[in-house]
Amino acid sequence: MIEVSNLTKRYGRTTAVHELSFTVRPGHVTGFLGPNGAGKSTTLRMLLGLHAPTSGTATVDGHDCRTLRRALRRVGALLDAGDVHGGRTARDHLRFLARSNAIPTGRVAEVLRMVGLGGAADRRIGGFSLGMRQRLGIAAALLGDPPVLLFDEPLNGLDPEGVLFVRGLFKSLAAQGRTVFVSSHLMAEMEHTADRLVVVGRGRLLADETVEEFATRGAPRRVDVRSADPAALAAALTAEGVRLTQAPDGLLTVESVPASRVAEIAAAHGVLLHELTTRTGSLERAFMELTGASVEYAAGERASAGERA
Fold first, then answer.
1. What is the pLDDT of residues 25-57, one digit of tens each?
2. Which one of 22, 44, 116, 215 is separated from 90 by 20 to 30 angstroms, measured CA to CA?
3. Bridge-partner residues for 222, per DSSP?
4. What is the pLDDT of residues 85-132, one digit of tens each?
5. Strand 204-210 relative to strand 196-201, pairing
6. What is the DSSP pairing of strand 273-279 with strand 244-246?
7. 138 phi and psi angles, rounded to 5 deg
């Protein structure tokens, strides 16, 4: 489990993280979202003991990572896929990490196969694509078989097959009871991968909730319904005070009424339904609305400033 309590980090007059508190529990994939400059990477680095907090605490299973011996057995992390020695082979890079953490060297071949780099084990990392480096970074995070895993933008540079692989990997790790914390800018992937979201802006907590709860911020819940007699269904719903819109093809869209209520009204009026689909709000739209005031650099504002100048 990851626990962050009143965490603050200042660099001179700049406050990168301000009294941030949240908990990431095992058994879930938790997404860590925020615009550029929100403090996500700084928070991850404090969690891993790479940066000292100005105040507050950040612990992994109750421990400050700066005090851990053989840390890769307790927490695995990918922060920067490019932060590796390009002259080493993938196998040698992981062997070095394994020896420094007393991890059996047999684990090296195992994690390379797991991330699809078994055939590239003896190639120099300098010749790897960004996607291959991301896979190697994930392999390094998994090397010690740790219960807690942190990933910063792990999908950058991955092709569609790689994205599907990583999505499935994170879900399987969480299903094993591990704590999986993933920072990403890709809203669509978080919608498909994460169970919960922690959202920050300008170093402050903006949201800590399930993906479904967060998505409803972006738009009201809507129900799409098709029936054998659209006119009769529309009349029945309107008579019950339900607001709706009707498309030329007969599709009715209902707002602020659950699908179960639509079905009850249709049954009461003897109208046969062919389709009943609930649509939640857009995760991307919810994110933009919530973090709009926290964006460090807004393209539209810069363009306007340039026009005024």
1. 999 999 999 998 899 999 999 999 999 999 999
2. 44
3. 255, 279
4. 999 999 999 999 999 999 999 999 999 999 999 999 999 999 999 999
5. antiparallel
6. unpaired
7. -65, -40
CB 46 within 8 A of CB 17: yes
Among residues 214, 202, 216, the alpha carbon closest in space to that of 30 is found at 214
Of 52, 118, 104, nearest in space to 73 by CA: 104
CA atoms within 13 A on the CB side of 166: 29
What is the chain's length? 309
Given phi > 0 = left and psi -120 to 50 = alpha, else beta, which region is 142?
Answer: alpha
80 burial class (0-12, 13-18, 19+ CB within 10 angstroms)? exposed
Structure tokens at 63: 């421990």
Q: What is the DSSP string of 252-293?
A: EEEESS-HHHHHHHHHHTTPPEEEEEEE---HHHHHHHHHGG
